[in-house]
Design brief:
33% helix; alpha/beta; six-stranded mixed beta sheet; binds magnesium ion; Rossmann fold; binds adenosine-5'-triphosphate; 501 residues; 22 strands
Length: 501
């Protein structure tokens, strides 16, 4: 890519970007939230047209008028937010919109498609059931489907936009293996991530963007995480976060689960007799590998999923049924892990998203009338406090960069003065600076007396924030430890289901 420039109203997303990637290389693309990584990838895949600049593929000028042109030229992208059709099967998603398949009926033959999928998933070690429907799959599995889809279409250049932000460490390791296998076949991998250790582990070279400009390209072997962070941010990054001891034992119980059981989306048992207590001012981390009941746990507490038995008690009062509105009224805030599905309304503006839970009440509305000026003022205030980069409060949420969408979500939930906050992977997709900010906000909320249930697969995050750590395995709490006594190895074993004392 040579001299690529892309403007959006009020934003210079890419500014004279020169970027080069080689066959057989894993090339990492780094930069803060809003630096222009996704925009550059979207240009490379024909989703956006650049305002200036040119692209060459294997030395030949290439102009893409639509994603289809890029696919035909062998460029494929796994997007930051997946784009699979949830009610279709894996096999159907792979052939969906595939030109060859439509032209030649044979390729749509389920057995042929399934055979090809089986072959690809063997070759790249990405097991997946071709007949499963997308909604039945975990995030990690869905991502495999996205990658298989790109490979299925014969991509030689693959762009992965934050592929690991929602994967377990094990799934991420598996993905890196797959990437190496693909690079060994002389494919080109462009890898976007905020996790510097991952970049160090998997890439050959790194290009850093800052505010739309290329800051530099370095060999991974010649650099380190400190230097990369400095290139991204433009100054030294000091991680100030340090969890002080637990808040002066305010021992009031904020949230209590008694013998809670629930079933998953497939109707199979997902939670078994879970007992868990979160005190006001306490952060309880729930560690575990995805798919062990975390999602169901979060949904039961926030009233989005029915319990089959047991009680959810918030500040002493048992929840009657399972009703999200009731949960909101009782002061339960929720930061879900699928920010674009459950978290925000992508087509509504930033300002509207920020009042989604407050618009029925004063000061946002009185006597059934909304007050646009207050909605705007609320947005201006929260955008400042949470450092949300958007061109205006009226900008639709979907136009924000991934990290900024996450900040909108956090701003709305934390500003609602909750008693209990259920936070699922709250810093996923955030750059180093924003991660630091969000962790600070969570600690501050705890100091203000909010009881926080922090559900995350990121053990480092849990160890950095939680007072106590519960491990969820197979829908059961297999142990609860104080953070001071937590050992990573022990937790890892518990997460893998090893028996504990
Ligand atoms: N479709 C769009 N319309 C208007 N502005 C956009 C659009 N897409 C991106 N932007 C803006 O362009 C800038 C770069 O965004 P981009 O999504 O490329 O960032 P990013 O580096 O991928 O960030 P993140 O790490 O948060 O995903 C941001 O200011 C964003 O708000
Ligand atoms: Mg992005």
């Amino acid at each position: 890519m040579r001299g690529i420039t892309k403007r959006f109203p009020g934003v210079l997303a890419n500014d004279q970007v020169d970027f080069e990637a080689l066959p057989g290389e894993v090339h990492a693309l780094l930069g803060e939230n809003g630096a222009g990584k996704s925009t550059l990838s979207n240009i490379l895949t024909g989703l956006y047209r650049p305002d200036e600049g040119e692209m060459l593929l294997y030395g030949k000028p290439a102009t893409f008028h639509a994603p289809r042109d890029a696919i035909d030229a062998g460029v494929g992208m796994v997007h930051q937010h997946f784009r699979l059709a949830a009610s279709f099967t894996v096999a159907e998603n792979l052939v969906l919109g595939h030109r060859d398949a439509a032209d030649r009926g044979l390729l749509l033959e389920p057995r042929v498609v399934e055979g090809r999928i089986a072959e690809l998933s063997r070759r790249y070690r990405m097991p997946v059931n071709p007949r499963a429907r997308i909604w039945q799959l975990s995030v990690g599995e869905q991502q495999r489907v996205e990658i298989l889809k790109v490979l299925y279409r014969g991509a030689r250049i693959l762009i992965l936009d934050e592929p690991t932000s929602q994967l377990t460490p094990q799934e991420a390791d598996d993905l890196f293996q797959t990437l190496r296998l693909m690079a060994a076949e002389q494919r080109t991998i462009i890898f976007i991530s905020h996790k510097l250790e991952e970049v160090m582990a998997v890439s050959n070279r790194v290009t850093v963007l800052r505010r739309g400009k290329v800051i530099g390209t370095v060999m991974t072997g010649d650099t380190n995480t400190r230097e990369l962070a400095r290139m991204m941010v433009g100054r030294d990054v000091v991680f100030t976060q340090k969890k002080q001891g637990p808040a002066q034992a305010e021992r009031q119980v904020a949230l209590e689960l008694r013998q809670v059981s629930a079933t998953g989306d497939l109707g199979t048992p997902a939670l078994h007799n879970v007992n868990l207590t979160v005190h006001a001012g306490e952060i309880v981390g729930v560690a575990g590998v995805a798919g062990n009941g975390q999602h169901e746990l979060a949904e039961v507490v926030t009233g989005m999923r029915r319990r089959t038995s047991g009680q959810v008690i918030v500040t002493g009062r048992p929840a009657r049924g399972s009703n999200p509105l009731e949960a909101i009224r009782r002061g339960i805030a929720y930061v879900p892990d699928d920010r674009l599905g459950t978290g925000v309304a992508p087509s509504l503006s930033v300002a509207e998203n920020l009042v989604l839970k407050a618009f029925r009440r004063p000061p946002i509305s009185t006597q059934g009338f909304l007050h646009p000026r207050r909605i705007r003022a609320n947005a201006v205030e929260l955008m400042r406090r949470f450092n949300i980069a958007a061109s205006s409060p009226q900008t639709p949420a979907r136009q924000l960069s991934g990290g900024n969408i996450q900040k909108v979500l956090l701003a709305r939930e934390l500003s609602s003065h909750p008693r209990v906050l259920v936070a699922c992977s709250p810093t996923s997709g955030l750059d180093v600076g924003a991660t630091d900010t969000v962790r600070g906000l969570l600690l501050e909320a705890a100091r203000d007396g909010v009881g926080i249930l922090l559900i995350s697969e990121d053990l480092d995050e849990i160890l950095a924030l939680a007072d106590r750590i519960a491990v969820l395995y197979g829908g059961r709490i297999t142990g609860i430890v104080e953070r001071q006594h937590a050992e990573v190895e022990q937790l890892g074993l518990m997460m893998a289901g090893a028996a504990t004392k």
